[in-house]
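step: validate -> pass
step: tokenize input -> pass
step: predict -> running
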Amino acid sequence: MASNELEGLMLGQIEKKLRMKIPRQQMPAQDPKERIHNFKEVPNGFTPALAVKEAQRCLQCKKATCMDGCPVDVDIPGFLQLITEGRFSDAAKQIKLTNSLPAVCGRVCPQEEQCEITCVLAKKFTPVAIGHLERFVADWEREHNETEIPEIAPPTGKRIAVVGSGPAGLTVAGDLIKLGHAVTVFEALHKEGGVLVYGIPEFRLPKAIVKAEVDFLASMGVEFKSSYVIGRIKGIDELFEEGYDAVFIGTGAGLPNFMGVPGENLNGIYSANEYLTRSNLMRAFDFESHGTPVMAGNSVAVLGGGNTAMDSVRTGLRFGAEHARIIYRRSRKEMPAREEEIHHAEEEGIEFQFLTAPIRFLGDENGWVKQMECIKMELGEPDSSGRRRPVPIKDSNYMIDVDTVVIAIGNSSNPLIPRTTPGLETNKWGNIVADDETGLTSRKGVYAGGDIVTGGATVILAAGAGKKAARAIDDYLKNL
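step: predict -> pass
step: emit ->
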């Protein structure tokens, strides 16, 4: 760490009142005009000087309310203090005591709705950029080859099967391996990482970051088996017959939802799952060296207002679309996507058509979509989500020319394991029923967490569910 760059920045030299006046530091990012032509990561990350200055904004509160919003119990004031002292690798290790995926969480978790919203500074100023700092120290540790294997407890002789290598499964694996249990992670696809690799674009979460996190778990002793579909190659009962003492199910919400409107089966209309998987897992984004077939349309319309919709429309833009649109039936205020993602999309020239809903798709003589009929909406009373319900405006129909449509209106839970596991209780949506605090299902020794339980949610909430399940599984194994 260059002393001249960071001279005078140590926390002890800055009084509390002065720290409160330090503005939130902005993370450098690619210029929008450049990044729309590549799939490189958009934010460039903090420099050491920016990281120290931002960490100095932390007031080191006696009651750290920021931690109340962290699903994985990170000692936030502790790792921020270490940053102010220039101990970046130590800060990363502090986070890893409770979070196995800091480089991932620092990039894609909605800190603004969790730890940052409960930051004391948020009451009168702007909160500390906790997520950006988490990303910085995780990257620093990795890039400077200062990653160290944590202490592993002596072998217990107990074996755990983890089904799915998304954020819930990886968290369970990381926590249990440290406790001395043998852990095997079964992944249905050919790359580990679950939604982290197939559902999030390279420009938001580089594949190399996910691989580094998976490799770190492997270095701790976690065994990974890819292209291994539990529910087809083997069932849950067969895992127990093979000697596993407990099973964790973290297979996610991989079943796409559709709208059920006329013409939805035309060529050129994709679910967001398929569209993003072609780009991410099949590396269509690396078009110079991979020939993955993907519809690089000139006029792309993405239906939905969440993070997946933002990912899809920005992917379409990078594939060369002249018009890349978001079609959303509510207003911007109701969009569930992260503000940062909406802001980046706006910077890149994405077109937003709010209070608009498609009612049918029209195709050409070869069965390819060419137009979408929409209707204007207005907002009525709030519905069960707390957002105002969109209501169609009579005779407000109009047409939009499109050649690619991506439907990003949510997902349902993966149905394979519930269908092939007798006695595993599910709810009316097909989600596995599991205890909120332990992840225990209706089957003895079988635990579940993440989107397979909650439906589509966030990476960090899945990781939090994984932590709870890991604690419960450890307690269960001790009593076998």
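step: describe -> The radius of gyration is 23 Å.
step: cleanup -> pass
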